[in-house]
Each structure stands twice: as C-alpha cells, then as structure tokens.
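User: Sequence in, structure out. Go.
Assistant: Echoing your sequence, followed by the structure tokens.
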Amino acid sequence: MSPRPRREQAHERAQMEATIKAVARRQMAEHGTAGLSLRGIGREMGITAPAIYNYFPRLEDLITALIVDAFTALADAIQVAESAVESQMCGPKVLASILSLAHDLKLEVIAEGVETEEDVALLRSLGCEQGQGFLFGAPMPAAEILTFIESAKAS
C-alpha cells in the first residue's frame, strides 16, 4: 500500500482540527470554559485524548487556536462592515450588528467618518460611545491637539 499524498494528509489534519475546535466551542457554550477538557472532547468524538494531543498538545494550545479563530472572524466582519460603509451600502441594521458584537466583547466603539449631525444622531441612537470625522474637525498634527482642545473649552 502506497503512502497517502501530503496534500491529502494536510487536508485530513485540517478537517480533524476543525472538528476538534467545533466540539470545543460546543462544550464551552454548554458548560463554560471550566467544562472544557481534551478528554471530554475525545469522548464526544469517540477518540482517545492522546489522539487529540497530536493536534493540540495542551488544552492551552486549543484555547489559543479558538481565540485566534474568534479574532480572525471579528476582523473579517469588521472588514466587510468597513467595505459596506465605504460603498455606502451600510444601513442602521449593519451598524447595530457591529455595535452589538463590539459591546458583547466589552469593546468601546469609536465610529469613523462622522460627517453630519444625522450621522451623530444615528450613532447615538444605536449606542455608539464616540465618533470621529470632519464634523468634529479636520485631522491635525499631535502638537496642535492641546491648543485645539484649550480653544474649544474657552468658547
């Protein structure tokens, strides 16, 4: 019997890693992070924990992979949202979804490209904490910011 091609092995490895991560996410959703274990994942998948060690030597390695996946997904969602905003295809539902996701992750949101009072009203109604854009002022060198703030306080 001839050995399998490397491409096939790599594909099988990627599939197994994806399955392990899917089971881990499901366990975390059901039992929280304290309920996550390589042994429990192996039991659910019908394989031994040492078999999982071939893919994730430690639980911390699996958790790191899950975190990387989550942040990659978030970055992808932000890129899609930015593209929608830039092409002016972004409506209140998309903005509300982005703000909801950010708030669920306990992130503070600063909206970029605020140019009209209508933008401010919409963002406030959706719970956006801060904004930046030409409505508030043109970009300026850092050295000029303190002077700008002082003059704004004086007026």
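User: And one key feature?
Assistant: Residues 91-155 form one domain.
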